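Action item from last week, closing it out:
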Amino acid sequence: MPQRILLIDDDPLVLDGLMTAFRAMSQYEVFGARDGIEGLEQVETFGPDCIIVDVRMPHLDGLQFLLALRGDPRMTHIPVVILSAMQQDDDILKGNLTGADRYLIKPQRPAHLFAIIDEVMALTEADRLARMRALAEGE
């Protein structure tokens, strides 16, 4: 069974482009959502193995989505990559402290994104805890 990837972005061009690239160039089964609320519904419905999420979105933004996801004990294991145009140090720190496994700046080449997905899906819960501890301690 192929691994399931959920892409969440409110920009239809970005979402459609990523979904097309994933379908053409990867072994993943891919689903899309246009905002955090739809993303949470897709998580419940499809049980993704990894999530790629934008930050700026209507209704429920990427950080709020991530807080909801990380606050549900059934979903804390799902790797999450933020893919955003927001590139200030504060934006990246907020994303990482909210529980993202990686924070990437748009645009990204699909091949690089696939490599990052493989990387975050290999993380263990201990890896995540150690990373959060290091972030909290300012390392």
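Closing note: The helical segments are 12-25, 36-46, 62-70, 89-98, 110-121, 125-136.
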